[in-house]
Amino acid sequence: MGRQALSLSDVKAATLLLVLALATACGTSAGQPKSGLVNGIVMGWPGGPQSGNDIPAAGAHNTFMDKQNRSAGVATTGNDGRFVQTLLAGDYLVQIEAFGQEPVILASNGLRTNGTSVYVTVDAGKTTSVSLVVETGIR
């Protein structure tokens, strides 16, 4: 019996089917995001002696620790206290260093804290908002 040679279109079709089968088996599809954004602001209180105003925590370091207690990224706030960090989807403990200390978190936008750090969940393709007020140490 003679064998027929495969045409180029047959090879392309077989390759496409193989790629789709592998993508399905891995549970991912082309273009599906694996990371998300954390968009945040860190403010300090009080802003000065006898001041009831918040001030931006400029230059604050926000270290994102993964479940294995490894640093997954560090975001430094700008002069306005804002930061943005891209992370793989997952749960993180955010350790904050501001005003030369690891400050006590006085308020958050509903996120769970342990007093000096905040817990965030990053969802793929989404933005998680973080809004914190921390102790400045100013009296």
Reported for the largest beta sheet, the result is: 5 strands, mixed
Q: Which architecture per CATH?
A: Sandwich
What proportion strand? 35-45%
Tally of domains:
1
CATH class: Mainly Beta
Query: What structural class do you assign from the helix and strand content?
Result: mainly beta
Question: What's the CATH superfamily, by name?
Answer: Immunoglobulins
> End-to-end distance, in Å?
94 Å
Count of helical stretches:
1
Q: Using the alpha-carbon principal axes, give the shape.
A: elongated
Uncertain runs with pLDDT below 50, 5 residues or more?
Answer: none
Average pLDDT score: 86
Provide the helix percentage.
10-25%
Structural topology:
Elements: H1 8-26, E1 35-45, E2 55-56, E3 61-65, E4 71-76, E5 82-88, E6 90-97, E7 105-108, E8 117-122, E9 127-135
Parallel strand pairs: 1-9
Antiparallel strand pairs: 1-2, 1-5, 3-4, 3-6, 6-8, 7-9
Task: Please explain how this structure is put together.
It is a single chain. Strands 1, 2, 5, 7 and 9 form a five-stranded mixed sheet that branches. By secondary structure, this protein is mainly beta. It has one helix spanning 8-26; strands at 35-45, 55-56, 61-65, 71-76, 82-88, 90-97, 105-108, 117-122, 127-135. The chain has one helix and nine strands; from the N terminus they run H-E-E-E-E-E-E-E-E-E. Strand 3 (61-65) and strand 4 form a beta hairpin. It has one domain (35-135): Immunoglobulins (Immunoglobulin-like).
